[in-house]
Each structure stands twice: as C-alpha cells, then as structure tokens.
C-alpha cells in the first residue's frame, strides 16, 4: 500500500465550521486516511491511498461540501509550487472582488433603511410627513386591512440584498444541509431568512397578528444590516488574513528568475527551472544567485540576510558554498550547481514554513472540538430562547401578554443565531501560528510545526552538544611555544612540524598546518619514514633527524625528558580545556602547542539570556571532564555531562525526562550523532550549519547556527503563545457572554435587549479583533 501525503490551498472558506465540514466530507471519501484543514492558512493536508482514490476525487469531494475550490498542481512542472501559489492567489482575488461587489450592493441597500431609521429625527426638525404617510397604503379586501407601501419597498430592497448579495451564504447553508451538516452560514441563513420571512408575512398579511398587537413591526432592516455587516466583516477578515500569510509569499518572491550558465563553452541565459546539477553558472555583482552550489572561481561578498537573518555580508572564496536567492554584493564569480528545484535551501525553507503553518497546535484541539458542535448547539439555544419567550416569559410575568410575544420571540432567536461566532475560535490559534512562524522564518528560525512552537514556551531544560553548537566545530591552534630551538638553524623547528603534520590524517593536524602556514614563513621539507602511532601521535624523519609529535605517552616511550617548566605549561593548558601536544627532535623537547575548538562569539551572553528565563542549561560531550568543565565555565553552563559516547546522548535525555514528568527537555545539536538525541528530546533544535540528518530530525532549524537564535526561538514561542491565549480568551469570552445577552438574560432585570443589527456588527468584529491581535506578532521584537 502506498500512502500519499499532499497539501493544497482551498479557496472559498469563510468560517471555522467550514473547516470541520470539509474535513468531514473528505475523510468520508473512500481511500482517504486523514484530512486536516488549516482555516487560517486555507490549506488541506490530506493522506490517501493512491490505489483507492486520487486527488481529483478529493477535489470533487471538497466542491461537494459547498462553494469551495481545491487548488491542485502539476507536480511534473519544476515550478509547480510557485504556479499553485499564484493560481490560488488568483482565485482568492476573484473571490475578494466578488465579495466587494456584494458589499457595494448591500451597502446601497442599507441607505434607505438608514434614512427610515433617522426619519423621525428629520420629521421632528423639518416637519415633513413620515415615510408611511408619503408612500401611502394599499387597501386589501381582507376585513379592510391596509398594506403599507413603505413595508413593500423594504421587502423589495431586502429581497435584493439577501438573495443577491447574500446568495453565497444561502447556497453554502443549503449545501451543508444536503450533506446533513452545518456551518456558520447555517446560523446566518436561519437568522436572516427568519427575519425576512416573518417581515414578509406581516407585510402582506397585516391581519395575522392583529389580535395581539395594533402595530406589526417588520425586521427587514435587521436582515439587510446583518448581511451587510457579515460581508463587511468577511472582507476585513480576508484582508487581515492576507497579512498573516505574507511569509511564504515573500519567500517565493526571493527566488531568482534566470541563470547565466556555461554550456559547451557558450554563455546562455536560461530560466532558473532549467538549471541542472553540475551546471557552471556565472554571477555578476548585484545579481541573485540562482540555485545552491559551490564557488569554483573568483570571490565575493554575499548578502545572506534573507536566509540567515544576519545583516552582515559573508565573504566567499573558491570551495565555499553559496545559497540560491542570496545577493552577490561585489565581485563576479563562477559556481557549480549542487542543488536545484525543490532541493535548494530556499525551497526547503518554504516547505518547512508551509508545513508549520498548515499544522495544528495542541492548544487548538479544544477550539476545534467546540467549533464542530458549535452550530447545532447555537440552533438549540435559539429554539429554546424562542420557546421560552413565546410561552414561559408571559406566564412568569417577564413580558406582558399584550405585547406581540411572537414578534419578541422571533427577535430574540434571530439575535442569538447572528451573534454566535465560531470563526473567532477557529482563527484564534492558526492566525497566531502563521504570523509567529513567518516572523521566525524572517529571522532565520525555521519552526517545522505548530506543536514545536507551543512546546518551546514550556522548556525547562536545554541540553547543548558542545562541538559545533557551543563551539565553532573547527579546531584551531591556540598556543605555540618553543624550547631549546637554538640548537637548530633558522625556522627548522617550524618547518619540521609543518611538514610532518601535513602528512598526518588526524583531525587536529589541519589546525596545526593552517596556523603555521598563516603565522610563520614556513617551508615544506622532504619527509621519510612517516608513521602514525594510534593513541600516541606521529613520527617521521627529516634530514636524518627524528621528529616526534604527540602526547606524554609518546614522549615517555621515546625517552624524551620533559622539563618541569614544560609539564607545568602543559597542565595549565589542559585546565583551560585545550588538547596539548609535545614536539621532540632527536629526543630533545623543542616545542609545545595546544589546540581547542573556539567557543562561538557571544556564547556567554546568549547562554545567560537563556538562563534568565529560568531554564536549566546542560552541556553534553564526549570530551574528558577537565576539558568539558573548562568550556562550561567559560560560557556559564549550569551542568556538564562529559565522556558520553555518541550513541548514549539519547539515553541521557531519557534519564532526565524520567526524573520528573513535568520536565520539558530541548536538545540543541548539529551532528549525525546528535540525531537520535534530537528525536528523543521534547523539542529538537538543529543548527543549520550542521549535517542534513540533524536538520531533518530537528523540530526547529536555526539557519545561521547561532546560540542567539535559540533564545530568539524561545521568545517567538512565548510571544505567540501569549497571543494565542489572548485570542482564545476573547473568542470564548465573546460567545459565553454574547449568546446569553442575545437570548435576553438581561431583559428581566434591566430591560436590555440586544438588536440583531448590533449582534451582526459584534460578530464581525470578534473575528477581525482576533486576526488583528495575531498581526501584532509581526511587530514584537
């Protein structure tokens, strides 16, 4: 069985209940294993069995659920992601324009009702006749009752607004009814249609309620204003949601459009989609680098800020990697393409951001459960309110039976249906996640899923791998001191060390060679009888001189007498966390040097910031205890776990997690041997400068590999969770307070009754306020 996982944009959603409806419909399609809709991102993530169904069948299922469109793509096209995004944007723009047209019609329709509402004030100020008197009446042959022409005019205007401007609302409600489901449009349709139907009946059959009231009120204006405010709210919400999802759009815009390649000795400018691995590409000053690759000729300064979040340009020379879509600031150069299409770093970043924005945070699950049953519950509440005010309220003396009780009950039920808003619940978490992950991406922090974003805020312990995380991961020679060198002419000691180390394959040999090459004017001498002595060091012969370079064990075995001064110097260097080596020529000690992995810039300050959040910091390493503690002391780490084998790092994390179930442990690493630990931790933070395996395993990827970005990740998580909680508090609070008030709970005590018009405005505002609050994350430092 082959399970396929795909993510596609959806056009046409306008409430959280739409999400539940689409998920229900798609999940019911044979062959679909899982369907999750992200309302804020407007995306469907679906897993299906290829042998049983296809994306076209799923596309039809989405359309069957209502006026929704699933935007699919041609995956054979190298630029399919960009094309899908553009197609979805085009369809959304069409929906947006259609919505604006409907709002204009509804807006024009509200003007006569506004005039009618203000007419008593105009009549009082000017003395003109009332609207009813100006328009007159029609007498009908049913006991002499009269139909008000003003009501007929209201009926005509309201019908146009409801069934033309609000057409999509009613269509959506009917479609959901056909598949035995409900959505937000069900509530709006029930409320407005009830108001319209009641008012129409009162208009053309005025005698219907004459026994209970001399004045039959109509609610055409309520239905019209409700449709207007609902549509206006959706327009404003749509505009706000666009701003929450600018991260992917801006990343797509970073992509270079063309590349200047050399093929068969000829320079050709081709679309970037046609670049293949191995192509030699020319980049001139000011141009974008088309794809990822390795610089092979020339040098330059490259602005990588759009990928790493670091503003300082990076110097590049032959052999250095270059990242697609970054900007060449100075010199011209040639590079060989190593990753193209969906394999480039920018494409991977876009995928990570899209996946994160389409994922759901655990905190959203409660809101989703409530949204799933929200509409039916509200309908039950509306019916209950209607029955209470129709039958019980008059008996209890809350409302006088002389009033038109039926009208009153209709009024209350309509207000309940209109004020209820699952949209705010549905938007509370995903809008904040979208803005939070997008904001993080611009800083060079790639959060792979919403759960990681939520978990980061709860971290109690952070375990740092030493090499490549706290240190730069590139050993350098820190100290070089000569002894008894007068016995040898000129720079023979340096030349001998350089020549012998150059023959060594030990990882630390490169540091010695690089140091001597840069600092000293060395010459390479002819080496013979080179020998690598495991666990001790190296041996070679130069001009009949025997050269020994290694640890104290090698010196002892070769009868090299180390003076007290040399031993003291070596001990001091070891306490500083350095790996120390001795050099002897013909059994005479001539030099001592130490190598250490340089600690990253501002590591102490960055660790201090993390500790200020109340998080315990731990360093894990395979180094010996003395070296490890020296490094930990220098950067201010709380605890050290040393001499740990690569395969045991994950076990140490399990041990810590088992100490207390409340511990939330993060692991920060960059190497292949960190991958199991990154996977075991509650949240794995991978340094982007590390291996592909570590990056793939991490929940969060720091593109630049800076410790400062660990702190920024925690801050992004804290700010995002704060906004999510504010959103949920508002969304729940609005509905918990709004629905009872709309149901008339205050009427017996204060004679306060909410208007359906005010309810529709409040409902629209509730969604807009949630999206607006999420947008604040863009501006939080």
Automatic annotation (TrEMBL):
Protein name: Copper-translocating P-type ATPase
Lineage of origin: Bacteria, Katanobacteria
Pfam families found in the cross-reference section: E1-E2_ATPase (PF00122), HMA (PF00403), Hydrolase (PF00702)
Localization per Swiss-Prot or TrEMBL: Cell membrane
Membrane spanning stretches: 102-122, 147-166, 187-206, 218-236, 373-399, 405-428, 728-747, 753-775
Organism: candidate division WWE3 bacterium
Keyword presence, Transmembrane: yes
Entry keyword set: ATP-binding, Cell membrane, Membrane, Metal-binding, Nucleotide-binding, Translocase, Transmembrane, Transmembrane helix
Domain of life where this protein originates: Bacteria
Family: Belongs to the cation transport ATPase (P-type) (TC 3.A.3) family. Type IB subfamily.
Single biological process term from Gene Ontology: copper ion homeostasis
Membrane topology according to the record: Multi-pass membrane protein
GO molecular function: ATP binding; ATP hydrolysis activity; copper ion binding; P-type divalent copper transporter activity
């Amino acid at each position: 069985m082959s399970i396929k996982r795909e993510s596609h944009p959806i056009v046409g959603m306008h409430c959280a209940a739409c999400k539940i409806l689409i998920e229900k419909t798609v999940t019911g399609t044979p062959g679909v294993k899982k369907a999750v809709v992200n309302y804020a991102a407007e995306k469907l993530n679906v897993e299906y069995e290829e042998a049983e169904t296809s994306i076209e069948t799923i596309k039809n299922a989405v359309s069957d659920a209502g006026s929704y469109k699933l935007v699919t793509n041609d995956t054979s096209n190298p630029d399919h992601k960009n094309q899908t995004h553009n197609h979805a944007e085009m369809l959304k723009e069409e929906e947006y324009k259609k919505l604006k047209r409907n709002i204009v019609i509804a807006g024009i329709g509200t003007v006569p009702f506004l005039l009618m509402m203000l007419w008593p004030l105009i009549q009082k100020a000017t003395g003109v006749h009332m609207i009813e008197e100006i328009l007159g009446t029609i007498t009908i042959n049913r006991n002499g009752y009269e139909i008000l022409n003003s009501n007929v005019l209201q009926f005509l205007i309201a019908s146009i607004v409801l069934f033309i401007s609000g057409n999509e609302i009613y269509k959506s409600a009917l479609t959901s009814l056909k598949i035995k489901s409900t959505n937000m449009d069900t509530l709006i349709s029930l409320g407005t249609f009830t108001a319209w139907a009641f008012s129409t009946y009162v208009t053309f059959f005025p005698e219907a309620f004459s026994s209970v009231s001399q004045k039959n009120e109509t609610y055409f204006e309520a239905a019209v204003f409700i449709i207007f405010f609902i549509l206006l709210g959706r327009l404003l919400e749509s505009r706000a949601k666009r701003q929450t999802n600018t991260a992917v759009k801006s990343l797509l815009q970073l992509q270079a459009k063309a590349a200047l390649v050399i093929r068969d000795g000829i320079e050709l400018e081709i679309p970037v989609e046609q670049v293949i691995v191995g192509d030699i590409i020319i980049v001139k000053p000011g141009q974008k680098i088309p794809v990822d690759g390795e610089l092979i000729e020339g040098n330059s300064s490259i602005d990588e800020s759009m990928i790493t979040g670091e503003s300082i340009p990076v110097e590049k020379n032959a052999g250095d990697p270059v990242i697609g879509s970054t900007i060449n600031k100075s010199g011209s150069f040639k590079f060989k393409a190593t990753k193209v299409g969906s394999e480039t770093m920018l494409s991977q970043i876009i995928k990570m951001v899209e996946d994160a924005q389409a994922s759901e945070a655990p905190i959203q699950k409660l809101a989703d459960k409530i949204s799933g049953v929200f509409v039916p519950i509200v309908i039950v509440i509306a019916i209950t309110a209607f029955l209470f005010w129709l039958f019980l309220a008059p008996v209890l003396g809350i409302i006088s039976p002389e009033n038109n009780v039926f009208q009153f009950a209709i009024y209350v039920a309509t207000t309940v249906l209109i004020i209820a808003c699952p949209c705010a619940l549905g938007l509370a978490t995903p809008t904040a996640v979208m803005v939070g992950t997008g904001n993080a991406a611009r800083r060079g922090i790639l959060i792979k899923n919403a759960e990681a974003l939520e978990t980061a805020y709860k971290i109690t312990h952070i375990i740092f791998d030493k090499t490549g995380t706290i240190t730069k991961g590139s050993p350098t020679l820190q100290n070089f001191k000569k002894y008894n060198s007068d016995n040898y002419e000129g720079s023979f000691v340096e030349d001998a060390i350089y020549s012998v180390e150059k023959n060594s394959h030990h990882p630390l040999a490169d540091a010695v060679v690089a140091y001597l090459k840069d600092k000293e004017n060395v010459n390479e001498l002819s080496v013979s009888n080179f020998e690598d002595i495991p666990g001790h060091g190296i041996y070679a012969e130069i001009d009949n001189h025997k050269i020994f370079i290694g640890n104290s064990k090698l010196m002892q075995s070769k009868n090299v007498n180390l003076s007290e001064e040399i031993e003291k110097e070596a001990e001091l260097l070891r306490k500083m966390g350095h790996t120390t080596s001795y050099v002897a020529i013909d059994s005479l000690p001539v030099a001592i040097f130490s190598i250490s992995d340089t600690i990253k810039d501002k590591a102490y300050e960055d660790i201090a910031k993390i500790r200020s959040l109340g998080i315990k910091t731990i360093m894990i390493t395979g180094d010996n205890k003395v070296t490890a503690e020296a490094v930990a002391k220098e950067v201010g780490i709380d605890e050290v776990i040393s001499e740990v084998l690569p395969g045991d790092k994950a076990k140490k994390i399990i041990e810590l997690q088992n100490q207390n179930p409340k511990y939330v442990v993060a692991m920060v690493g960059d190497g292949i041997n960190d991958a199991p630990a990154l996977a075991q931790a509650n949240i794995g933070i991978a340094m982007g400068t590390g291996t592909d395996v570590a990056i793939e395993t991490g929940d969060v990827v720091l593109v630049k590999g800076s410790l400062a970005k660990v702190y920024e990740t925690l801050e992004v998580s804290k700010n995002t969770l704060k906004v999510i909680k504010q959103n949920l508090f508002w969304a729940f609070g609005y509905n918990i307070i709004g629905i009872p008030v709309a149901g008339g709970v205050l009427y017996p005590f204060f004679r306060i009754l909410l208007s359906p018009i005010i309810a529709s405005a409040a409902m629209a505002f509730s969604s807009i306020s949630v999206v607006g609050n999420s947008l604040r994350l863009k501006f939080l430092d």
